[in-house]
Inverse folding.
């Protein structure tokens, strides 16, 4: 069946709904779903009004405080999380299709990355829901027994980015619910389809109000939610600018805010790196999901002894990447997410060319063929000999644009790598694991990869960002607060 005649298009016949107080609502205000694959309007999605937000938060608060959810055990919550996993499992093809159409992600990327991460998150947090450990400490007197308890905040708002609409939403939702909170999810305005579709599959599995899904813009729905007095905790995954705005907006409310933000992640390649595997990981780390991954290895620093060889082989490998229809199983890269982002990426490319920020080795020109010129596709673009202070080597482009910069000594590479306000991820390639350990210790980033890119254990070993890349805890811990309880065993003795 060709993409254009696929039966899954019927999913777009109905307006994608919001979920408030257990009810799916799609008969109010809507916005268009525009596919970046061909710039066509393919459907509609509900948008929350001010009244919707107030009604939804009131229902969520009630569900958290006095509904059945508040009486459920971790085991009960775990069972529901596994039912949600079953619902996703039996609709995998639909999710692949929706992400491809809505955000331009290749179906294979959704199949082999976004869906497994989503399903693993549900089973992992189902386990954690049943195993929330407190501690007990000696407190300096035998008369007092201490124990700590991990407790939910109550109503937790999760604001999602657009680059992983399904997996970021499922991962965060699973942790919020496992911790015993109720979840209010605001998907990104340009990528709300998959999570609202999920809401329609699982609305009946949860007591009313335990999961709320409110699509809408950041400046309206997002800002109303972050500042809502009945939202007890705010978690946001997005850009540094939005993170700073949310901190400003919520400052007077003294509520817990956790931020998972952007990165401009250095990939350091030493002279003794194994060339074949380093190339494979570096290309994937830079161009998977068209570079729209917070931990993408977007600035590559190469030691002078292998610089020429690495650059020519890297460019040859990049030119072999298949870019095209995200519905086509053979494509590694689809389009970027939408028009505004497409224009922003082009501004960086044009400015780098105009200001001679480096040597353009591949990409950097628009597609002219019939299919890709009609969508928001950008060629994988590589600039070499880029000074580490250039705009394209410093700012997060969040697209398929990579800079290559040579260095002589490791200290120089570390100074370049750490000379950034970002500190999300970093990597080093070398066959000398002692040297790798020294470099890893010196890198200022929340996660460091040695001889690979991307972390396989994001659930078991969740990482936050250093510096401007994040604030607050990560994983399930961020959705829990600690209560210390002190019991005097012999109350008559002081
Ligand atoms: P963004 O900051 O534009 O938007 C993120 C979310 O915030 C959206 O849902 C948006 O509607 C909402 N928002 C915007 N303004 C708001 C406001 N004033 N109040 C409340 N909500 C508001 O980010 P994006 O472009 O959607 O995502 C890309 C960014 O996310 C990149 O910087 C990327 O690195 C980062 N990211 C980080 C991680 C991580 O785990 N650290 C993961 C994925 C993406």
């Amino acid at each position: 069946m060709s993409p254009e005649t696929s039966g899954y298009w019927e999913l777009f016949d109905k307006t994608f709904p919001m979920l408030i107080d257990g009810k799916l609502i799609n008969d109010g205000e809507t916005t268009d779903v525009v596919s970046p694959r061909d710039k066509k309007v393919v459907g509609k999605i509900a948008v929350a009004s001010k009244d919707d937000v107030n009604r939804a938060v009131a229902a969520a608060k009630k569900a958290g405080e006095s509904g059945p959810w508040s009486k459920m055990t971790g085991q009960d919550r775990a069972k529901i999380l596994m039912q949600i996993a079953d619902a996703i499992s039996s609709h995998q093809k639909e999710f692949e299709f929706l992400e491809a159409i809505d955000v331009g992600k290749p179906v294979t990327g959704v199949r082999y990355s976004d869906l497994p991460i989503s399903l693993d998150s549900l089973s992992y947090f189902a386990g954690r829901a049943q195993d929330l450990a407190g501690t007990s400490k000696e407190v300096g007197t035998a008369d007092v027994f201490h124990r700590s308890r991990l407790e939910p905040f109550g109503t937790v708002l999760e604001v999602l980015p657009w680059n992983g609409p399904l997996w970021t939403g499922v991962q965060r939702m699973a942790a919020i619910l496992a911790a015993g909170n109720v979840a209010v999810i605001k998907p990104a305005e340009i990528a709300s389809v998959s999570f609202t579709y999920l809401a329609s599959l699982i609305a009946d599995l949860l007591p009313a109000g335990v999961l709320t899904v409110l699509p809408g813009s950041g400046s309206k729905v997002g800002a109303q939610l972050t500042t809502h007095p009945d939202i007890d905790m705010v978690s946001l995954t997005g850009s540094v600018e939005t993170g700073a705005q949310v901190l400003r907006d919520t400052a007077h409310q003294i509520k817990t805010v956790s931020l998972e933000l952007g990165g401009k992640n250095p990939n350091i390649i030493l002279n003794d790196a194994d060339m074949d595997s380093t190339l494979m990981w570096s290309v994937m780390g830079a161009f998977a999901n068209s570079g729209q991954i917070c931990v993408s290895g977007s600035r590559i620093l190469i030691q002078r002894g292998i610089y020429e060889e690495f650059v020519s082989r890297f460019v040859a490998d990049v030119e072999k990447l298949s870019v095209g229809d995200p519905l086509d199983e053979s494509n590694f890269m689809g389009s970027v997410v939408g028009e505004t982002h497409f224009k922003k990426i082009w501004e960086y490319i044009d400015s780098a060319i105009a200001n001679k920020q480096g040597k353009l080795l591949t990409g950097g020109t628009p597609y002219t063929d019939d299919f890709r010129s009609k969508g928001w596709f950008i060629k994988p673009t590589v600039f070499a000999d880029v000074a580490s202070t250039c705009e394209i080597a410093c700012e997060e482009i969040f697209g398929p644009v990579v800079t290559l910069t040579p260095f002589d000594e490791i200290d120089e590479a570390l100074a370049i790598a750490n000379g950034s306000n970002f500190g999300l991820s970093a990597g080093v390639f070398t066959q000398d694991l002692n040297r790798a350990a020294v470099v890893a210790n010196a890198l200022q980033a929340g996660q460091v990869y040695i001889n690979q890119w991307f972390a396989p254990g994001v659930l078991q070993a969740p990482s936050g960002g250093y510096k401007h890349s994040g604030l607050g805890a990560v994983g399930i811990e961020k959705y829990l607060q600690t209560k210390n309880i002190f019991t005097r065993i012999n109350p008559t003795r002081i």
The chain has 14 helices and 19 strands. Residues 255 and 315 are 48 Å apart (CA to CA). The domain at 266-459 is CATH 3.40.309.10 (Aldehyde Dehydrogenase; Chain A, domain 2). The pocket of nicotinamide-adenine-dinucleotide is lined by residues 159-163, 186, 188-189, 217-219, 222-223, 226, 236-239, 242, 245-246, 260-263, 294, 396, 398, 424, 465, 470 (CB under 6 Å).
